[in-house]
What we know:
Number of helices: 5
Number of domains: 2
Strand order of the largest sheet: 1-2-3
Order of helices and strands: HHHEEEEEEHH
Strand content: 15-25%
Shape: elongated
Helix content: 40-55%
Largest sheet: 3 strands, antiparallel
Amino acid sequence: xxxxxxxxxxxxxxxxxxxxxxxxxxxxxxxxxxxxxxxxxxxxxxxxxxxxxxxxxxxxxxxxxxxxxxxxxxxxxxxxxxxxxxxxxxxxxxxxxxxxxxxxxxxxxxxxxxxxxxxxxxxxxxxxxxxxxxxxxxxxxxxxxxxxxxxxxxxxxxxxxxxxxxxxxxxx
Length: 172
């Protein structure tokens, strides 16, 4: 979106600068400073007084609208082949996640409480380099190291790449 806005801005700026430059050059070449405006007015008058048939106007309008529709038509977003693989039980723990919209990275990785199927929250950090997950309902706790989470993400991505999600979907 920003790129389109920048391109449009550049186009408008170039048009304005070109118009001013042509006006300045024309004024320098003629003694009459209004001559470029008279020329522009006569050119516009000729175009506006041209006798055109209605079907030509409608055809041109239709072509312009078709071009605008093609250029502004939303592009189809391609879904990752493993986008439906959003939950799994790994090492006895049930995990759910979302895939990033634009890449195959995992967003919002969450563990599900084995006691009551509630999303566990990252609750506390322990002194020994571990951090903990806690169920907000039953207070069930589980601790992990940062390396455990990195390995977990790697296993999920590997399962997705190997197509193991289809086996998990059949089991559920």
